[in-house]
Amino acid sequence: QKSYELIGEGSSPAEEFNFTIVATKTSHTSVTVAEAPVPTITSSVTYAAGDATVGGTATNSVKDIVINFAPNGNLIYNKVGVYEYKLEETIPADASKNLGVEYDKEPVTLKVYVVNEVDGNNEPTGKLKISEISLTKKNKKITGLVEGGTNNNAAFVNKYTANKLNVAKKVYGDAADRDMEFNFKVSFTNESGKAW
């Protein structure tokens, strides 16, 4: 799943996030990386303006990213083994980025364990099945889900940061002119590496 989290105040812009998946490694099989079948993945998810929420766990902040290992009803694998993939969010060019949106640059590693299916007598049926799927991010195992009121296990987390600035001037004293104009200069410093 993907989470869109609001940091601060304000309303997030409408946004589309895109994803790719590529095979990176195979083991315990004669299938090479170049030959490895690649599952289909939700290529993009869209959010309407204001969908990012504090914590990023509200229904409108969470989108499903579906990985399909049998797009035509048949498992894509024809040999046992461990198949490893890299899932990434596509980071748009600077000119296409929305100000205040933080894109998720950390890839997710997907491992798929394919084994022989056996019957009740522990005899091979001639079919294959997926025995386990694991997801890791930053060398930490994740579920890929937004769960338990937190987005810590989500596959991808995007953040939108916006705040308000209120400027006020108080005038004191018995000779103060409340109608007099005052000029203000406000300067902002951009955090390094962030698009604004």
Structure characterization notes:
- The protein has 196 residues and is mostly beta strands.
- It is 0% helix and 39% strand.
- It is built from no helices and 12 strands.
- A hairpin with a 2-residue loop joins strand 10 (124-137) and strand 11.
Give me some keywords for this one:
196 residues, 6-stranded antiparallel sheet, 12 strands
The rough form would be described as: elongated
* Distance N to C terminus: 26 Å
Mean pLDDT: 91
Number of helices: 0
Radius of gyration over C-alpha positions, nearest whole angstrom: 25 Å
The sequence of SSEs as H and E is EEEEEEEEEEEE
Low-pLDDT windows of residues: none
- The share of residues in helices is under 10%
Strand content: 35-45%
Order of strands, main sheet, comes to 4-2-7-9-10-11
Largest sheet: 6 strands, antiparallel
Q: Provide the structure class.
A: mainly beta
Q: Could you tell me the number of beta strands?
A: 12
Give a nutshell description of this structure.
With 196 residues, the chain is mostly beta strands. The protein is 0% helix and 39% strand.
